[in-house]
């Protein structure tokens, strides 16, 4: 009790000193204009920073039984870095597709998740997802609070050849990119501060519970027998359903209501983003084997094959509809293939991954077509591509999975196992219902706390200027005119 009281008093004392120092450096003329939404993020972060000083350090875990495998550790370190690379890749992918006046604001919202989620994961996110199970629904956040016992703890039961800390950081990369995916649905109209709050609430209330259900040995979907190798439900379906909820709460952009076609700001950005995503996805899926083994090689191969098949399928299907083959078409199709193979990567053989990629691309292409005719303004079609793509992948895992690839998996419907297919359907339905409902409530709550959407004037001027006071200059010329440099768009 004495230690606890001392700890609380020390935190309060140092926190007060820290805040006074910071406020001393803030222009006093700005103080009167500060709102709670501006002050609160800094106060929360500074409190966590000061509290972290007093978290006791423990000795690292001693591998007395020589269970660690150097090859597995090396591969997971590389895979972790590859998955992280997907987040800036996603920023390029999304940033190239929006209007030029919203490029920067769209890109930073994806990358911002790396900051917010990393702190939350260390604080309590890892515990919620992988801590001691509470009824199979959620982890106890106290298990790994402030990363307690992560460095000193025994390896994760399903990854016994790598340190627990490496497993935790690898899983962090999945948690980072998931809220970043939602950005594409609410781009060009959501306030920056509102999205920061969404990232935090979504990570704790949607991502962490679903990760626990699916990947924790005591999670109820895991116990049910549902299979999701690398995040079809946890990442893509949850993000896709959250994207649909966000699009419904934020309603339509002005250009969408006026049915104006907005040309992509920078198609080469989309191509660069696709390359980074494809490259990083090898770590995403093959890394989920949690070792340098034959299963990782199989997942690597299925990942590449499904992406290739889906990119071609989307492009060729567009040609059948009378369109010309496009860079955007191939890039979007390849990403859909990567999404669809994610839950199946370690459970299906390489030839079957071609079928998954082709079918997923066609279904998502059709979904995009009908979404565009609707009044749902999912700016970059996150739900048709990630949501529906993930659903197709989960269902086809239930059809094509085989224990010949992964003895820890199951035989799919094509091998006569109807029970496993129905289990996949049940798991998919639960995740869709939960992620959409809770995400919808999160967006509504944020809108109750503060306006979640920018004003019409800010939307017209663009979020780069109104939210960040920055401007994307690609595609402009600086013209010398009577001693002054003036900015002109290339099409002026």
Give a quick precis of the structure.
With 492 residues, the chain is mostly helical.
Write the layout of secondary structure elements.
Elements: H1 2-24, H2 28-31, H3 36-52, H4 70-95, H5 103-130, E1 133-134, E2 138-139, H6 164-186, H7 192-215, H8 220-224, H9 232-250, H10 254-257, H11 267-286, H12 294-320, H13 327-341, H14 350-373, H15 382-400, H16 418-449, H17 456-461, H18 463-468, E3 476-481, E4 484-489
Antiparallel strand pairs: 1-2, 3-4
Helix pairs in contact: 1-3, 4-5, 4-6, 4-11, 5-6, 5-7, 6-7, 6-9, 7-9, 7-16, 9-15, 9-16, 11-12, 11-13, 12-13, 12-14, 13-14, 13-15, 14-15, 15-16
Describe this structure in words.
With 492 residues, the protein is mostly helical. It folds into two domains: 2-24 and 36-52; 73-449, Ammonium transporter fold (Orthogonal Bundle). It contains 18 helices and four strands. The protein has helices at residues 2-24, 28-31, 36-52, 70-95, 103-130, 164-186, 192-215, 220-224, 232-250, 254-257, 267-286, 294-320, 327-341, 350-373, 382-400, 418-449, 456-461, 463-468, and strands at residues 133-134, 138-139, 476-481, 484-489. The strands form two sheets. Strands 1-2 form a two-stranded antiparallel ribbon. Strands 3-4 form a two-stranded antiparallel ribbon. Strand 3 (476-481) and strand 4 (484-489) form a beta hairpin. Helix 13 (327-341) crosses helix 15 (382-400). The mean pLDDT is 91.
Main features:
mainly alpha, Ammonium transporter fold, two-stranded antiparallel sheet, 18 helices, 4 strands, 65% helix, globular
Number of strands: 4
Number of helices: 18
**CATH homology superfamily name of the largest domain:** Ammonium transporter AmtB like domains
Fraction of residues in helix: 55-70%
Shape type: globular
In the CATH hierarchy, the architecture of the largest domain is Orthogonal Bundle
| Strand order within the widest beta sheet | 1-2
The overall pLDDT average reads 91
The CATH class assignment of the largest domain is Mainly Alpha
Structural class: mainly alpha
Report the β-strand fraction as a percent range. Answer: under 5%
Order of helices and strands: HHHHHEEHHHHHHHHHHHHHEE
The separation of the N and C termini measures 71 Å
CATH T-level topology of the largest domain? Ammonium transporter fold
Whole-number total of structural domains: 2
Main sheet: strands, sense, barrel: 2 strands, antiparallel
Low-confidence sequence ranges: none
Radius of gyration (Å): 23 Å
């Amino acid at each position: 009790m004495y230690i606890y009281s001392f700890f609380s008093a020390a935190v309060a004392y140092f926190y007060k000193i820290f805040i006074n120092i910071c406020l001393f450096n803030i222009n006093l003329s700005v103080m009167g204009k500060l709102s709670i939404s501006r002050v609160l993020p800094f106060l929360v972060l500074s409190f966590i920073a000061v509290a972290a000083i007093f978290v006791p350090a423990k000795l690292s875990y001693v591998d007395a039984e020589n269970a660690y495998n150097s090859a597995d550790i090396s591969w997971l370190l590389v895979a972790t870095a590859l998955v992280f690379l997907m987040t800036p890749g996603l920023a390029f992918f999304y940033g190239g597709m929006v209007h030029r006046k919203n490029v920067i604001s769209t890109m930073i919202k994806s990358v911002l998740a790396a900051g917010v989620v990393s702190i939350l994961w260390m604080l309590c996110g890892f515990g919620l997802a992988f801590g001691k199970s509470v009824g199979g629904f959620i982890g106890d956040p106290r298990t790994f609070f402030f990363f307690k016992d992560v460095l000193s703890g025994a390896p994760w039961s399903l990854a016994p050849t790598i340190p627990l800390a490496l497993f935790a950081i690898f899983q962090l990369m999945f948690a980072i990119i998931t809220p970043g995916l939602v950005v594409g649905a609410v781009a060009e109209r959501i306030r920056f501060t509102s999205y920061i709050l969404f990232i935090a609430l979504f990570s704790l209330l949607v991502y962490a519970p679903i990760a626990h259900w699916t990947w924790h040995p005591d999670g109820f979907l895991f116990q049910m027998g549902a299979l999701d190798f690398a995040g079809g439900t946890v990442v893509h379906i949850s993000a896709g359903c959250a994207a649909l909820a966000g699009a419904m709460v934020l309603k339509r952009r002005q250009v969408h209501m006026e049915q104006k076609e907005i040309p992509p700001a920078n198609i080469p950005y989309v191509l660069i983003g696709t390359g980074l995503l494809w490259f990083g996805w090898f770590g995403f899926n093959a890394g989920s084997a949690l070792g340098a083994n034959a299963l990782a090689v199989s997942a690597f191969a299925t990942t590449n094959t499904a992406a290739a098949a889906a990119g071609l399928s989307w492009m060729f299907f567009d040609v059948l509809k009378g369109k010309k083959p496009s860079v955007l078409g191939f890039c979007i199709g390849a990403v859909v293939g990567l999404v669809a193979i994610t839950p199946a990567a370690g459970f299906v053989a390489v030839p079957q991954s071609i079928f998954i990629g082709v079918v997923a691309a066609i279904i998502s292409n059709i979904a995009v077509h009908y979404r565009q005719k609707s009044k749902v303004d999912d700016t970059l079609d996150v739900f048709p591509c990630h949501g529906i793509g993930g659903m197709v992948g989960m269902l086809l895992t239930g059809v094509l999975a085989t224990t010949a690839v992964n003895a820890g998996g199951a035989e799919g419907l094509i091998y006569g196992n109807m029970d496993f297919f129905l289990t996949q359907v049940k798991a998919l339905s639960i995740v869709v219902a939960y992620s959409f409902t809770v995400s919808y409530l999160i967006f509504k709550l944020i809108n109750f706390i503060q306006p979640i959407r920018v004003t019409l004037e800010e939307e017209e001027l663009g979020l780069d200027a109104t939210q960040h006071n920055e401007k994307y200059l690609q595609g402009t010329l600086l013209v010398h005119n009577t001693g002054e440099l003036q900015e002109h768009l290339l099409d002026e």
